[in-house]
Amino acid sequence: GRVVAVVPAGDSSDLAVAVAAAAAATEAWAGLGGPERGQHLTRLATTLGGDHRGTMGALLALAGGRPLCRTLGADLDLGLRLLQVPAGGAQLGPPGLEGWTPLGVVAVVLVGPCSLPALLWKLGPLLAMGE
């Protein structure tokens, strides 16, 4: 029954800033190579599932309107696995993708409230491949 956050509406200039920031980071991220990207993604998953687990659960509960016990359990655990799997694949080097060149900035379109698993199901493989 009370306001927990206020978020300003974005416009096309906010989108332009986000795309410019992604474009600036793309070359460095893609240049790391699969093993290094995989290590970064694994470290991110470990951090989110470790000391920051409670904070992540609370944010997910607020964002999705779901009980904290649900976000700390299935949602967070599944989301972290959906980040760890492509991270492991990137560290090993996916067979058949020798000479793979990342394409660049990729937009991920999400509709309505988005769960962490839904977000990482889309983002994990993209990040692991250097996008």
From TrEMBL:
Domain Aldehyde dehydrogenase per the UniProt entry, residue ranges: 2-130
Pfam families hit by this protein: Aldedh (PF00171)
Domain of life: Eukaryota
MF-aspect GO terms: oxidoreductase activity
Entry-linked InterPro entries: Ald_DH/histidinol_DH, Ald_DH_N, Aldehyde_DH_dom
Name of the protein: A16A1 dehydrogenase
Lineage: Eukaryota, Metazoa, Chordata, Craniata, Vertebrata
